[in-house]
């Protein structure tokens, strides 16, 4: 079994990056994904706050692993928004990621509207190809996060989109909790369908569905014991990122770290 390091989405502790790092270091975490800071969601944040992030990284020797700007988290019908994201948001995010030493950007797989014809899937492929081509030119990896109600919702559907785009710069941000309530069981079926394209992993848990309510890891229905064991056995990723999603954030994030470390110890 290969050891699995834990990271965390910084605003799942607090949007104050410096304060988030202080808490996380106490839990033995040194890897951070940045989504939201005090001034907003990346990349539309105060430049002074980015300077403070960089200073905090240098002071505490921590790493930013990925940025999550929320790209493609809406329907294919919103072509103007898609164009803006490809032409402006993504390039600015890539520049920010490079400045922070991150090599990955989390994106989404297009919200699927009620009654949307299957033929629209080709539009999803085309938009993602444009984004992946830009990322490839810039030496960056895009990771599609599966999300309920999206074209990329299950492990199988996310895998299909990645394969149809066919870019070496495109992988999956596998979120088993987000796959709950779809047509597949997140683990093991969803994981087995997607594991050969996984670039990043998000960890949270639920009893009702991730868009309804999340709970601390181990209190929900996701088989995190099995999923952690498989990640360690298959050695697909070197770390997995906690995305707590339930209040109180600090307390539940700390609990998630403790539970996941226990799962890892039991799997070793």
Write the element-wise H/E pattern from the N-terminal end onward: EHEEEHEHEHEHEHHEEEHEH
CATH architecture verdict: Alpha-Beta Barrel
The fraction of residues assigned to DSSP E strands is 15-25%
The beta-strand count equals 12
Helix proportion of residues, in percent?
Answer: 40-55%
- What would you report as the Rg, rounded to the nearest angstrom? 17 Å
CATH uppermost class: Alpha Beta
Describe this structure in words.
The protein is α/β, with parallel strands linked by helices and 268 residues long. It has one domain (5-267): TIM Barrel (Alpha-Beta Barrel). Helices cover 44% and strands 21% of the residues. It has 9 helices and 12 strands. Helix 3 (79-100) runs parallel beside helix 4. The longest helix is centred in the middle third of the chain and has 22 residues, at 79-100. It is globular and about 50 Å long. The mean pLDDT is 97.
In short:
44% of the residues lie in helices and 21% in strands. A hairpin with a 2-residue loop joins strand 3 and strand 4. It is built from nine helices and twelve strands.
